[in-house]
């Protein structure tokens, strides 16, 4: 496949980010941009992605240093809750302005909000399993 991760977890992350970026932040910047959650979201996404892509680029050639591997599979512990809570709050903030755009948007946003708890659990536990598996291999190789 295109990615090594299961399609479900990859799709969940891509769909969630697409909704947050295009439907929420881009769609309702007057509501979302002033929020502290917006800054927290950008910081958590930027930190996670900087480490993730550095790891992926170096790992293509088998050259990812052990410290970067550990960072890649440990940073999600603080960053996922911050990112998820920020996404949730920004989505919640966008409900009322969305009501003025289309009566179909608030129910869609509420549906997305309802999916955050199970979706977050799936993503977080997936990363815990990946961390255990990857760091176990790393520890055995050192």
TrEMBL record:
<protein>
    <recommendedName>
        <fullName>Very-long-chain (3R)-3-hydroxyacyl-CoA dehydratase</fullName>
        <ecNumber>4.2.1.134</ecNumber>
    </recommendedName>
</protein>
<dbReference type="Pfam" id="PF04387">
    <property type="entry name" value="PTPLA"/>
</dbReference>
<dbReference type="GO" id="GO:0030148">
    <property type="term" value="P:sphingolipid biosynthetic process"/>
</dbReference>
<keyword id="KW-0443">Lipid metabolism</keyword>
<keyword id="KW-0275">Fatty acid biosynthesis</keyword>
<dbReference type="GO" id="GO:0005789">
    <property type="term" value="C:endoplasmic reticulum membrane"/>
</dbReference>
<comment type="similarity">
    <text>Belongs to the very long-chain fatty acids dehydratase HACD family.</text>
</comment>
<dbReference type="GO" id="GO:0030497">
    <property type="term" value="P:fatty acid elongation"/>
</dbReference>
<keyword id="KW-0256">Endoplasmic reticulum</keyword>
<feature type="transmembrane region" description="Helical">
    <location>
        <begin position="76"/>
        <end position="95"/>
    </location>
</feature>
<keyword id="KW-0472">Membrane</keyword>
<dbReference type="GO" id="GO:0042761">
    <property type="term" value="P:very long-chain fatty acid biosynthetic process"/>
</dbReference>
<keyword id="KW-0276">Fatty acid metabolism</keyword>
<dbReference type="GO" id="GO:0102158">
    <property type="term" value="F:very-long-chain (3R)-3-hydroxyacyl-CoA dehydratase activity"/>
</dbReference>
<comment type="pathway">
    <text>Lipid metabolism; fatty acid biosynthesis.</text>
</comment>
<keyword id="KW-0456">Lyase</keyword>
<keyword id="KW-1133">Transmembrane helix</keyword>
<dbReference type="InterPro" id="IPR007482">
    <property type="entry name" value="Tyr_Pase-like_PTPLA"/>
</dbReference>
<feature type="transmembrane region" description="Helical">
    <location>
        <begin position="107"/>
        <end position="127"/>
    </location>
</feature>
<comment type="function">
    <text>Catalyzes the third of the four reactions of the long-chain fatty acids elongation cycle. This endoplasmic reticulum-bound enzymatic process, allows the addition of two carbons to the chain of long- and very long-chain fatty acids/VLCFAs per cycle. This enzyme catalyzes the dehydration of the 3-hydroxyacyl-CoA intermediate into trans-2,3-enoyl-CoA, within each cycle of fatty acid elongation. Thereby, it participates to the production of VLCFAs of different chain lengths that are involved in multiple biological processes as precursors of membrane lipids and lipid mediators.</text>
</comment>
<keyword id="KW-0444">Lipid biosynthesis</keyword>
<keyword id="KW-0812">Transmembrane</keyword>
